Amino acid sequence: MNKLFCYLFIIFALSSCFPRRKAAITTAPQVATNKAPIQQPTPDYQKNNQEIKRASQAVPTNNNQVNIQFTPITSLQYIARFKAIAIQEMNLYGIPASITIAQGLFESGSGNGELARYAKNHFGIKCTSDWKGRSYYKDDDHPNDCFRVYDKDEDSYRDHSLFLKRKNYLSLYDLDKKDYKGWAYGLKKAGYATNPNYPTLLINIIEKYHLYDYDITADDIKTKPDTLQLKPISSPDSSKIVPLQTSITFDKYYTVKQGDTLYNISKRFNLTVNQLKALNNMLDNGIKIGQKIIIAP
């Protein structure tokens, strides 16, 4: 018994000489539940726009970049330049040429607006999630709204045709190609513009410049080859201009007050800045107190 006790005592004594190791406790790694979202870099709007402006105002000459000065054009010059493109788009996509030209005139300020001059964007089409091209930023519905930049003016007209192929505009193609009035009201109903007077604005422009003469279909060309000989645009016949309703013409002008800007005036009367500038033949955003601004044609 004593031997057994001694043997157990020796084993206990020897085991106490070895260092004891703590059991490793493993826990699952904690997953951060409040991880901050990755911040996208804010575009340098001013720098971006300056680069677009420089690119649009320069042409290569003997491997050098030479700045060229923009020369304003009249509405008649705009029509003469783009009528053939509008007719081509009509026969490819079914949109009345009169509607396309009228929208181009109105949205771009007869080609003199900022977007048309620098971005070659004649219809104020904004960037979408699938847009991969360059962008130009300016105040519109929101500060620094993103607008598409095109390489050529013709690209803007083609993108306009493609834009009007979206689902909400499909019912318009049931109309006759020469029904510019139906198209004008249909565009408003489909959500193209928020301005309640938008159809009247387009119709007045079309009838002021006889743009319905350019609603030439492929059948017209086949059956009446002489329709290709488009008569030259002349000054509009005031007797054929359809007057606006009294309720609209009564408030045709707005007098600029202290603190006003083109942007807040445009929002007040449901216009865009470009549309407001087009109505007033303005090349910049400068206004002064007491100045009368046209807010309807």
Which labels suit this protein?
6 strands, single chain, two-stranded antiparallel sheet, two-stranded antiparallel ribbon, Lysozyme, 297 residues
What order do the helices and strands come in, and which of them pair?
Elements: H1 2-15, H2 45-56, E1 58-61, E2 64-67, H3 75-93, H4 97-108, H5 114-119, E3 135-138, E4 145-148, H6 153-163, H7 180-190, H8 198-208, H9 218-223, H10 246-249, E5 253-255, H11 262-268, H12 273-279, E6 292-294
Antiparallel strand pairs: 1-2, 3-4, 5-6
Helix pairs in contact: 3-4, 3-6, 4-8, 4-12, 7-8, 11-12
CATH topology tier name of the domain at 45-55 and 70-243: Lysozyme
- Helix percent band: 40-55%
Low-confidence stretches: 20-25, 60-66, 230-250
Radius of gyration: 33 Å
Count of β-strands: 6
What does this structure look like?
The protein is mainly alpha-helical and 297 residues long. It has a domain at 45-55 and 70-243: Lysozyme (Orthogonal Bundle), CATH 1.10.530.10. The protein contains 12 helices and 6 strands. The protein has helices at residues 2-15, 45-56, 75-93, 97-108, 114-119, 153-163, 180-190, 198-208, 218-223, 246-249, 262-268, 273-279, and strands spanning 58-61, 64-67, 135-138, 145-148, 253-255, 292-294. The strands form 3 sheets. Strands 1-2 form a two-stranded antiparallel sheet. A two-stranded antiparallel ribbon has the order 3-4. Helix 3 (75-93) crosses helix 4. The radius of gyration is 33 Å and the shape is globular. It starts with a helix and ends with a strand. The model is unreliable at 20-25, 60-66 and 230-250 (pLDDT under 50).
